[in-house]
Amino acid sequence: MRRIDAPEILDSENCPVEEVQPALQTLDRINRFFGGVSTTQKMIERVAVATGTKSFSVLDAAAGSGRMLEAVRKRLAASGVLIHGTLLDRDRSHLPRGNFHQDQPHYARSQASVVGDALALPFADQSFDLVCCNLFAHHLTPPQLCLFVREGLRVSRHALLINDLVRHALHLGLVYASYPIMGSHVAWLDGLTSVRRAYVPAEIREIVAGFPVDSVARIEISRHYLFRMGAIVWKAQRPVRGACGQL
User: Fold this and answer.
1) pLDDT, average across residues 135-164
2) How far apart are CA 96 and CA 105, in angstroms?
3) Which of 75, 84, 133, 241 has the fewest CB atoms within 10 Å, measured from its CB?
4) How many CB atoms lie within 10 A of CB 188?
5) 93 SS3 class
6) Alpha-carbon distance 219 to 231, whole Å?
7) What is the dihedral of CA 94, 13, 34, 112, to 10 degrees?
């Protein structure tokens, strides 16, 4: 399939307010049952093995509700790996309504929330052990994705973790067939758009290959359940400098 970039309803200012939460809840179910949570879990486990570290501060860029990272946190805790999450999203309505309020669910109280731009992260260099994103990379054009990778590496100490869809005709067919169980018309329409604009592993690898060798140590890309991929972009020891592709 040729990549077709098009806007998604949930990203638009024209998305009805009453449709936002049902769409986000549908995305949470997709992450829970169709590879989203397990893909990020496996990437963090991989970093834990490679670094010998059992505790990580994690920035979740374009985090939405925060339920995905909380689900990962619970699964990892069972194996002795601890993560401390910070959620970032450009739209306040996508994030939990507040932190540390007794009337909020646990996932909203246990993670800090920040409104900000993932392409210009409002954090100092090496503020987090890891930066991750889920179902975000396909929203970006190649130059934007390049900028996000640069920002993610700048802010992280170990790696940037990209969890996203794989573009495939069969994947598109499955989304078409999912309409009766999707639960949100907006999420279903956006799902069709997401598959069409998703990247394949070779395209992600090519984009990262444009970075200077003193920025990226290596990239590991794995395929996961139901057209998911996980890309671990390992940070080189030297700080990230310069524009994408500059040597």
Assistant:
1) 97
2) 9
3) 241
4) 18
5) helix
6) 7
7) -20
Query: In b/e form, how buried is each residue of 126-138, taking b as 16+ CB within 10 angstroms?
Result: ebbbbbbbbbbbb
The bridge status of strand 228-235 relative to strand 216-224 is antiparallel
Query: 216-224 and 128-134 as β-strands: parallel, antiparallel, unpaired?
Result: unpaired
Whole-number Å distance between alpha carbons of 231 and 211: 15
Supply the DSSP symbol for 239: P
Phi, psi of 220 (to 5 degrees): -115, 125
Section 239-244 average pLDDT = 52
Domains and CATH numbers, the chain: 9-235 (3.40.50.150)
**pLDDT bracket for residue 47 (50, 70, 90):** very high
Residue type, 143: P
Q: Which two tokens stand for residue 240?
A: 């990230």
Query: What pLDDT digit, counting tens, does each position of 68-109 carry?
Result: 999 999 999 999 999 999 999 987 666 776 543 333 444 444
Three-state SS for 247? coil
At residue 222, the pLDDT reads 97
Q: Which residue in 127, 198, 207 sits closest to 163, CA to CA?
A: 198
What is the longest distance spanned by two Cα atoms in the chain? Answer: 51
Report pLDDT digits (tens) over 164-198. 999 999 999 999 999 998 989 999 999 999 999 99
Q: How many residues does the chain have?
A: 247
User: CA geometry: angle at 100 spanning 94 and 106, to 5°?
Assistant: 70
Enumerate helices (H) and strands (E) in the chain, giving the number of each.
Answer: 9, 7
